[in-house]
Amino acid sequence: MGFPFVGEAFGFFTPHKSFSIGNFLQQRCSRYGKVFKSYIFGSPTIISCDLELNKFILQKEGKLFQSSYPKPIRDILGNHSLMIVTDVERHKKLRRIEVGLINKFSSTSNFLCEIDKLCVSLMESWRGNQLILFSKQAKQLLQDFLTFMEGFVSIPINLPWTPYAKAVKARRRISSTLKQILNERKNRKDVQGKGDPFDEILMKEDLISDVEKVSILLDLLLAGYETTSGLLSLLVYFLAQSPQALQTLKDEHLAIRRNKKEGEPLNWEDYKQMEFTTMVINETLRCGNLVKFVHREAIKDVKFKGYHIPAGWKVLPILSAVHLEPSLHENPSEFNPWRWTDPATSKNVVPFGGGSRLCPGSELGKLEASFFLHYLLLNYRSRKIVSAAAIHRQEVSASA
Ligand code: HEM
């Protein structure tokens, strides 16, 4: 079970290529099978690389298992964050509001135009640059967010110079900016309820406190930021490895553009035609494993398929292990978007988790990535200049 206190944490958290499960899991699975015991940072832990057990854990949220994120993540996200809240009724209430906000935004008449505009302005900002280092560009949106995210991969030592302390401070700064915006909106009574999702849903909501409202906004910013920017980087990375997929994708987007006037923004009809694009995004999520695992804890003694999980033990369903399982996917480490023509593939890929905590931003993330690809492919040529691999940094992945 490894070293005192840290246990097997070093092995488990060692970075590795995103399209492999890494040496630690590989060795343990071949020695003990797909479900095994470990000891990570002071907690006895069950690690599951088994599809059925993973689905069972996610489906039994609130009944047999609950969310159980480690201290740095809890401190940085805050106790009101959707991912952290364990009380079933409170989670339902906050989730209803967050899902309502995402849906309301997605159904506004200018929603697609706004995403389209964002993609076009991003491409405009690159104009004149001979070389764009993609992974850097995708992450350079907000300095506070970078500091915030760095805290997730840190040891929780609260000294002014540690990434953890800086991240907690960055969270405080972002929260106070959001609080200010909420207050300003409260005072602008004249515009409330006139079609703006924030005004219609958040400002009218009396059942939650202002602190919870700020936390909802923070959740959406954080969960949408790290994951979507990671997905865009991975798309560029995997497409650079697969010229055939890149060409097929380009053909799809050229065909869509041919039927439009110069500068006309994309619409739902265009999005529906992006069939190969959807396959590329799904395959990128399978190979890229943005969220490698989620954190859970057994709240009762659990027996499933002959496994016994004692109450109070940490449980880590490894989503990526199922994505890369050779008995479920042919040549699992190969980036092959065409495998998605087989409907069985989607049953064995769960990049957005499942059960009552299924990612509420999955469709939005995919739509943003599709529009981004459209403008990237029509405006830029890419060239691989370093033979880097897509590396998995474990804790960031857990941030969702
Ligand atoms: C695009 C790539 C994305 C991936 C791979 C992803 C993945 C995930 C996963 C695996 C979870 C489950 C965490 C758990 O069970 O503990 C999750 C939850 C969540 N995601 Fe996403 N996500 C993505 C994009 C987004 C976007 C764009 C948003 C919002 C705008 C979002 C908002 C959330 C929220 C609020 C939760 C917490 C749900 C809950 O606990 O009920 N995600 N995400």
UniProtKB/TrEMBL annotation:
Where found in the cell?
Membrane
Give cofactor(s), names only. heme
Q: Which GO terms describe its biological process?
A: brassinosteroid biosynthetic process; brassinosteroid homeostasis
Q: Name one Pfam family in it.
A: p450
Cellular component GO terms held in the UniProt record: membrane
Q: Which PANTHER family match?
A: CYTOCHROME P450 26 (PTHR24286), CYTOCHROME P450, FAMILY 724, SUBFAMILY A, POLYPEPTIDE 1 (PTHR24286:SF159)
| Signal peptide limits | none
Q: What is this protein called?
A: Cytochrome P450
> Which family is this sequence assigned to?
Belongs to the cytochrome P450 family.
Tell me one GO molecular function of this protein. heme binding
Coiled-coil positions: none
User: What is its membrane topology?
Assistant: Single-pass membrane protein
**What SUPFAM superfamilies does UniProt report for this protein, alphabetically?**
Cytochrome P450
| Organism of provenance | Solanum lycopersicum (Tomato)
UniProt cross-references to InterPro entries, sorted A to Z: Cyt_P450, Cyt_P450_CS, Cyt_P450_E_grp-I, Cyt_P450_sf
Q: Which residues bind heme?
A: C359
CDD domains named among the record's database cross-references: CYP90-like (cd11043)
Using the UniProt record, give the first listed, main subcellular location.
membrane
UniProt keywords (A-Z) are: Heme, Iron, Membrane, Metal-binding, Monooxygenase, Oxidoreductase, Transmembrane, Transmembrane helix
